[in-house]
Amino acid sequence: EVMASVLGSGNMEMNGGSSDKVSVALVGSGGMTVVGSCKQFKADQTGSGDLDGEHLAADATTLNLRGSGTAVVQALETVEVTLRGSGDVNVIGNPAARTVNKTGSGDVNFQD
Fold first, then answer.
1. Phi, psi (5° rounding) for residue 28?
2. pLDDT, tens digit, for every residue of 49-77?
3. What is the pTM of this model?
4. Which domains, ranges and CATH numbers included, belong to the chain?
5. Could you please report the per-residue DSSP string of 9-46?
6. What is the pLDDT of residues 77-99, one digit of tens each?
7. From CA 47, how far away is CA 100, in angstroms rounded?
C-alpha cells in the first residue's frame, strides 16, 4: 500500500507506481497530483484543495470530498463518491458500477 497526505497549503506530486492500493488525504488548500496504476484508490479530501488523479488508473475508486475543493479521479470498474459541500468531482474511465452520495451544491460528472 502506498499512502500520502497534504496538510495545509502545500502541493505534492506522487507516483503510485503499480500498486494494489493507493490512499491519499488532502486537508486544507493544498494540491495533490497522483499518477500510476492500482487496484484500489481511496482519497479523503477536506477543504478547498485540488486533487488531480486523472493519470492514476484505478480499478476501484473511493472518494470522500468535504468542502469546496475539486477532484479529478479515474475509475475503470467501480467508483463511490461522497460529496458534502460545493466541491466538484470529475470521474474519468466510464465505470459500470457507480455510487454517488451528494449533499450540497457540488457536482459529480462522468467522462469517458
1. 110, -150
2. 999 999 999 999 999 999 999 999 999 99
3. 0.96
4. 2-111 (2.160.20.120)
5. S-EEEEEEEEEEEEEEEEESS-EEEEEEEEEEEEEEEE
6. 999 999 999 999 999 999 999 99
7. 19
